[in-house]
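question for whoever is on the cluster today: can someone run the full assembly for these? two chains, 517 residues total. i dont have access anymore since they changed the login thing
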Amino acid sequence: MSASVLFDTPGPRTRRRSRIASVIVVVLIAAGLAWVVYTLAQPRDSSGITLPGYFDASRWDIFVLAELWVRIGGGLLATLQAAAVAAAMALVIGVMFAMLRTSVHAAVRIPATIVLEFFRGMPVLLMMLFILLVASTGAFWAVVLALGVYNGAIIGESLRAGLAALPRGQREAGLSLGLTRLQTKTFIEFPQAFRQMLPVIIAQLVVLLKDTSLGYIVGYNELIRTTMNNLGSSVGNRYLFSLFLVTLVIYLAVNLSLSAVARRLARRRSPGKILAKDQITPTASISALGAPTGNPEDRTTE
Amino acid sequence: MNAVIENLPRFIEAFGMTLWLLATSGVCALIIGTVIAAMRISPVPSLNVFASVYTELLRNTPLTLVLFFCAFVLPQLGSRLPYEWAAFIGLTLYTSPFVAEALRSGINGVAVGQAEAARSLGLGFMQSTTLIIFPQAFRMVIPPLINVLIALTKNTSVAGGFFVFELFSAAKELANANGNAVIAILLAVAAFYLVVTIPLGILSAHLEKKLAVQR
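^ ran it for u. tokens below:
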């Protein structure tokens, strides 16, 4: 905190003022939250009938049923399954795209670029619909294929950026040792680019996991569809809010732990001496927090 | 191809809704995102914490769930908004933390020597931020912000799953109605999206090259 260059080390008066501001903000936020919780907890009149508040036991009593949790677990499993298969596919497609896009032959490079731009510019949801209607593969493969191709295109782009950021000497050294261009690329350049871009790739895989929720719209029974649609209609609307909160908490738990892994990898990444001055991410920070820069998630596409 | 031409008015109507969602939630997300980014670099600790909790929460929630909340849970809580406005609120909320992060990484990207130089010349906090840091951060922030808008363009399609008639729901409706021209219709819809995203992408790449600061 004190290391910020933007302002002087605060004196007693500034510290007091900042403390007061802090307290005011905390009180305001707490009051806002308390108001929301209080309003939700109030019983409400709806066309003559009094409904219990949202934290009333009658809105939460289904959560003691083991069967309910089995179904929620099934939904979560379906989400993770789709994400895992799509992630594997995205990595393979990403490497392929990066290879094709950096080819020396214009006849390979240009069509690859056009296809890549096409996939990157289109909504994943539209791609899912396309696969669903044209290939009629069923919802699971529609979700997986669309996510694999779309995220593959994005991973391919970041791998390409990683290749471009490598010092030229790496490639020249490989070629001068008598390796072919393809060998240089696969054995010398790619491993380094992959390592350099690993945090970005992992952050993109977190995005992929989040995007499996689009299965809700195309009819794949993943977590949201299971809890909100299937369970929601079998236990009734009165549990909708409770189910929503549970779904939200599950998603946050899974995504935040994955993001934490990504962040740790970003911190542990030691690109080696060769790359020290070719860091793609800025290294200086002037934020008041002195927050770590080059957060991998800054450079992903949602 | 005929199916596309016959239904052109329907496509245009849907495209209009997509553009409306893009414009309104884009502008509002830029405003909210700027406020959040300002909180994130402010010297008041509680504002910092609030901004980072807001960012982390929304960034780790799937857009589908955010829109579900706006379309189905909010009415349960007593809101009477039409679905278009629900989608607008959801897209704005979801996009704002990405705007904030783009701005913050732009500010972090200004070399620390710039701030030190400003401070050593005797400029205060306001002077060094407004005269030295923001003008430099601004150039670095434009391309990532355009990328956020490109992502928003694609994300408006999710609103189609929640009763908003935009390009995605048009694709679904027209593909169901014209079983023999599914591919043509879906490609036409893709073309409408590409008309927005590809020029924005080219603009972003161009600006990135043009605005790059020589250091």
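summary bc i know u wont read the tokens: Strands of chain A lie at 44-46, 49-51. The longest helix of chain A spans residues 66-101.
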